[in-house]
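Page header: ASSEMBLY MODEL / two components / 704 residues total.
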Amino acid sequence: MGIIIKAENLGKKYIIGHQRRERYITLRDIVMHKMLGIGQRILHPLSPNKEAVTLEEFWALKDINFEIEQGDRVGIIGRNGAGKSTLLKILSRITEPTTGKVRLKGRVASLLEVGTGFHPELTGRENIYLNGAILGMAGAEIKRKFDDIVAFAEVEKFLDTPVKHYSSGMYVRLAFAVAAHLEPEILIVDEVLAVGDAQFQKKCLGKMEEVGSEGRTVLLVSHNMAAIQSLCDRVILLNHGSVVNDGNPDEVIQAYTSLLSEISSRPLEDRNDRKGNGKVRFTAVGFQNTNGEPCSVALSGQNLQIVCTYRCLTPIKDGKTMFSIAIETLTGEKLLLFRNDYTGNLFDEIPIEGMLICTVPRLPLIPGIYRITICAENTQDVMDLVFHAAELQVTEGDYFGTGRVKNPKFGPFLAEHTWEILGAPLRRDVHD
Amino acid sequence: MTEIIIEAGKGSKEYFKDLWRYHELFYFLAWRDILVRYKQTTIGIAWSVIRPLLTMIVFTVVFNKIAKLPSNGIPYPLLVYSAMLPWQFFANSFAESSNSLIMNSHMISKVYFPRIIIPTTTLIVSLVDFLISLLILSGLMVWYSYLPGWHILSLPIFLLFTALFSLGAGLWISALNVKYRDFRYVIPFILQFGLYISPVGFSSNAVPSQWHLLYSLNPMVGVINGFRWAILGWNVHLNWQELIFSCVMAFFVLFTGIRFFRKTEKTFADIL
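Prediction written out in full:
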């Protein structure tokens, strides 16, 4: 068995613009930027040219090396933002690496999403052909496998119905069925098993096992450790864009689990990547609900308390201490800032030791992982500032209390709102 | 077994081989766009008939009846309509391709294929509209009892010329539109401006001769004159010098378009 994938020195750098959510630039920005630059030159001809937009480099992947042999079934695991998806995108040629090289021997099919290119207006039959072509199948190949695909998806009756009328289950079944009939030498799969009902998931796992046993190479990203364990004979663990562990599935999964708990339990007190004069020092950050029960995972819409334990050198009595908590995404987009002087909850005296509690009613964040930065300062100095003091994991919750919103993906926030049409009554039987 | 090498900073050496491998995707995407267009808008076909017809009427009234521009004895509606054909083809594919990458961004961020396929398929949709318009033109010619001569045989060549120029312009605009997302505000302006600097509403004879060289820098001048020559025959004088000039410009746009597109396409998945 030869080596079928060989990655050397692979790296991928992204440039993140601060204060900006968009990944694209506009012509207006460029023109404005240039004009500002010229303006500055005229006003201050001697000062060095200052960049008006601050950009930061972010290495999603760094110095990745591995070899995969033909027939290997490799799982790729890691925390959110560890670089798994970026790695798959490079291997499937969707994006280009910034450094390094990959050699792939054979036809690659990547399945980063089920039903890529499905068009709601087209019928099931039409979408099978279209999706097959998008995934790299030839027309003749699709024709040959057409009946198998339809049988696998169990949608015979609805073949000539536009897929916009399909139930979500049918849609996923059809989409996966097309993908399952690819016959590449290398199959790259990203977390697609997270969709569909349990029975169909089992069927898909079975299909993938079949693919693997035919000597094909499979790369699979998943958060579902059970699926990884049953499908893969080798697992690669990524953390902060680097390979930290590679080998036997049981061992690597074990390493991953301990990595997760190690990070969340790393004592804040021992961290020296902090700023400030040390008059106040945070020693721990935790999360709890309003009954004081600790929660490792918060729900969208729950009342959340962020609890910061601190210690001072001496009691502070000047009444000028301000605390703030910032929430940002893993890629550094700033989302929220909580400050006790915003809310007017000021303290004349800070006890030498204590617990600082910030209560956020109805947490307005969508599911995801967020970074918490905490800071204590007075009008002159920063006393303690810890970037990324903790990670807050938020999972699906019933923010609106209607049971309707499951997993919103548009933007980072949820907000309370109501709707009406003047003169038209609302439906009453909404959710009870 | 084929070997693929992905390397930082280097495009695939097998780009054109890949293009061939994915040629069926090209057909399928074109087929999808046509299907969706005529499924979604029940007035899809009617729209492609009404638009050039109305423009033709307005132009005939404005340029012939009001401005009294010369037409060399050709019925003015025919003069306008024979120019509307390539202009609509260009304008449609230009507008469609400008948006095409953004419309298909979910595909671009999830699957590999040569990205150039996407703006290219818009040509096919425009071609369907073109063929419908061509049918109407033949109706108009029957109405005016105007028979085309042997020149009509050269029509496919001029159509190809239009398609190549449209492709070049479409590649430029689609890549620019991904890179600078506010470029779309410029597109209607380019099209409107283009309509007036191209001889759609008037005959090229109406342009003073000292301006001809500058004027034919616009490839659509050569395209439209060629179309008129092919369709309306002997009443139209074809200036070969102008045509060659326009041809050179069109190929220049096409080649730079392909180069610019290939240079930027690697980053599409990162910025879409």
